[in-house]
What we know:
By secondary structure, this protein is of the alpha/beta class. 56% of the residues lie in helices and 9% in strands.
Amino acid sequence: MTNEELWRACLAELELNISPTHFKTWFVESSLLSKKESLVELGFKNAYTKQVIEDRYHGQIKTILERLTGEKINLIFKVVAKPEKKIEEKNMGPLFQAPKETPQKTREESNLFSQYTFENFVVGSNNNLAHAVAVAIANKPGKAYNPFFLYSQVGLGKTHLIQAIGNKILETGSQLKVLYCTGESFANELIDAIQSGDRAKTEKFRRKFRSVDVWLIDDAQFIAGRESTQEEFFHTFNHLYQAQKQIVLTSDRPPRDIAKLEERLSSRFAGGMIADMQPPDIDVRVAILRRKREQENLQISDEALELIAQKSPPSIRELQGLLLQVSTIARSQGAEITAEVVYKVLGGHQNNAEKKLAPKDIIQAVCTYYSVRQKDLKGERRLKEIAFPRQVAMYCLRRFAGIPFMGAGELLGGRDHSTIIHGVDKIEKALQEDAKVKQDVANIRQTLGI
Length: 450
Ligand code: ADP
Ligand code: MG
């Protein structure tokens, strides 16, 4: 057994023993780096993951590996920036939910995951056109927009939306044959068929793709490059298109920007409807988290959700990952998810907006908003009109720029860190109870552009 095979076998067993959510969170980029006699080195994507696995799964992994190899095993846990062999995410099911049972044959043949639906797709200004087109197609396959070409950066919902089209069509009980594939799987299957030298196999491949009513091709950019793949794709496309079958494609960029894609294909891809999706703004991010909270029945405050949304990079996949990370940790500690927990867990994360935020801009914004002079904000006076804005400044420095307590103390006229902790705490509480404070902070954030 190679190291990779051994690790795959071990993961396959682990997967049976732990929840899909945990499995996916912790093992997604894991690898078995080396095995020298009884010494097995495992690699994980970051220090936090490594720590969790070491604490919680050490025993299980050891037992499984010992059974698989028939040897005594000692484990070494390591952090590797890029694991050599990554366990691919697409084989591990989507976040939070295990794939549901899909008994019907049509569903199985479609390759769809049943939980990617329109119902749990949050619509916002970043994706409303794409969503509307997708819904129209699901209602009238082959009639509304054909082909439909959807593009965006990774993690913004292409797979979710293209699968939602297929799921919706199946759900209505229609007899239409839906087939989801990726550009990559199309290319691989074709190469397999060709290399086998077996004509029956190539014919089977052709029939499979040419007999569908709704063809969903995710990450279509992967068909570019190889001539035979593009040739076959072109003929399949034409065959279906002429028969007025629905074709939907996704890609990480518009057709004309896909390198090494033949002109005849890019012009066909662009010949119908094209829509893109943008990264969600903070409101949409919060809405997505709220939807998750509902679905998963999580105990988490609005404030904590907002903080996660602020800290998230643009990718929705990563946004969900942060929520999962926070909720897993809170659950393991039996704690409710408050802003403080989020801050502790995600303190190290900084989104782009935060990186650009200079402390002096934050102090300026607070002073302007409350009409307080900087000299007073940093000074000793304890008048409520000054002390309160000072505490808001503490909160903003800490939360929006990730300034440590000590640093915030220095920026605010050399206060000690317990004063800052107290101030931040007070504003945090006020944000829960006092609409005026909430509004103030929202307004300040707005002037800071976050
Ligand atoms: P892409 O294919 O563009 O890389 P995915 O479709 O895989 O992105 O989306 C990443 C994750 O984010 C998935 O778990 C998906 O369910 C979720 N997601 C994306 N967009 C939305 C949305 N608008 N509402 C709810 N969840 C979303
Ligand atoms: Mg995708």
